[in-house]
Amino acid sequence: MEVTFRIRRYNPEIPGKDKPYWQEFTLKDVEPTDRVLEMLHRIKWEQDGTLAFRRSCAHGICGSDAMRINGRNRLACKVLVKELGARIQVEPILGLPVLKDLIVDMEPFFAHYRQVMPYFVNNSPLPADGRERLQSPEDREKFDDTTKCILCACCTTSCPSFWANGSYVGPAAIVQAHRFIFDSRDQAWQDRLDILAEPNGVWRCRTIFNCTPACPRDIEVTRAIGEVKLAIRGGKRDGIIQVSQIETH
Ligand code: SF4
Ligand code: F3S
Ligand code: FES
């Protein structure tokens, strides 16, 4: 099949291309099962070597090729042409500064990530028998979903609250905090809840739900945010909730 790609371009170093503009490329002999990332490679290698985009693993693991494809945040390496049709529009994810073409500056995103102490804290001595700190399957289950995050930013950059105020830590940072807050072995959960109770923390989430369908790892992002909200309100980390319980604040 023949597919036309409409791509948002921008190159601050080239006069005439230093304002965002759209450019179309037509590819022939495209298979319905081809992935968008492969097609971007074809455009770059066969038609325009200046096209800039990030990618690494090509298998949905590294999280580096988040893009807005036909109006929705996705990983270019996971979405197939047959899911999109013969006209495919590709633009950078929203809410972060564009550096060149489809490449955005991820530093504000990672600054929010670092804010929530995204690492395990336990200063107690290890068990005397030399074994690891044990955890029941039930306790492990509480944060199983949020361990899957690959920090692709699809959620945060689909959130209107983040678009309106880049100081909001955003759903990805909350998902990362959730992974440690609900780990029964972690000792810094209260510190993280305090950080997320600040004005740019979880209460900037208006339960808009854009983040959950945007997640390529199928993490229930809004549910995780709701659980953190409940933990802050209850002053403890025992809440595992139904989506219907999530409140708008
Ligand atoms: Fe990406 Fe999902 Fe993690 Fe958000 S929660 S950064 S969408 S993997
Ligand atoms: Fe934004 Fe998701 Fe909340 S889209 S407002 S973080 S539910
Ligand atoms: Fe690694 Fe797509 S290139 S997730």
Largest sheet: 5 strands, mixed
Supply the CATH superfamily name of the largest domain: Alpha-helical ferredoxin
Hetero groups bound? Answer: iron/sulfur cluster, FE3-S4 cluster, FE2/S2 (inorganic) cluster
CATH topology of the largest domain: the name is: Fumarate Reductase Iron-sulfur Protein, Chain B, domain 2
How many domains is the backbone divided into? 2
Stretches where pLDDT falls below 50 for ≥5 residues? none
CATH class of the largest domain: Mainly Alpha
**CATH architectural grouping of the largest domain:** Orthogonal Bundle
First and last CA, distance: 48 Å
**Global outline:** elongated
Order of helices and strands: EEHEEEEEHHHHHHH
Q: Supply the number of helical segments.
A: 8
Strand order, biggest sheet? Answer: 2-1-5-3-4
**What portion of the residues fall into strands of 2 or more residues?**
5-15%
| Spatial extent as radius of gyration | 20 Å
Which helices and strands occur, and which strands form pairs?
Elements: E1 3-9, E2 21-27, H1 36-47, E3 66-69, E4 72-75, E5 87-91, E6 98-100, E7 103-104, H2 107-115, H3 137-141, H4 160-164, H5 170-181, H6 189-196, H7 211-214, H8 221-234
Parallel strand pairs: 1-5
Antiparallel strand pairs: 1-2, 3-4, 3-5, 6-7
What would you say this structure looks like, in words?
By secondary structure, the protein is an alpha+beta fold. It folds into two domains: 3-103, Beta-grasp domain (Ubiquitin-like (UB roll)); 107-245, Alpha-helical ferredoxin (Fumarate Reductase Iron-sulfur Protein, Chain B, domain 2, Orthogonal Bundle), CATH 1.10.1060. The chain is 28% helix and 13% strand. The chain is built from eight helices and seven strands, in the order ββαβββββααααααα. The protein has helices at residues 36-47, 107-115, 137-141, 160-164, 170-181, 189-196, 211-214, 221-234; strands at 3-9, 21-27, 66-69, 72-75, 87-91, 98-100, 103-104. It has a five-stranded mixed beta sheet with strand order 2-1-5-3-4, with helices on one face. Strands 6-7 form a two-stranded antiparallel sheet. β6 and β7 (103-104) form a beta hairpin. α5 runs antiparallel to α6 (189-196). The longest helix is centred in the C-terminal third of the chain and has 14 residues, at 221-234. The N and C termini lie far apart (48 Å). It binds iron/sulfur cluster (SF4), FE3-S4 cluster and FE2/S2 (inorganic) cluster (FES). Residues 149-155, 171-172, 175, 214-215, 217, 219, 221 line the site of iron/sulfur cluster (SF4). FE2/S2 (inorganic) cluster (FES) binds next to loops.
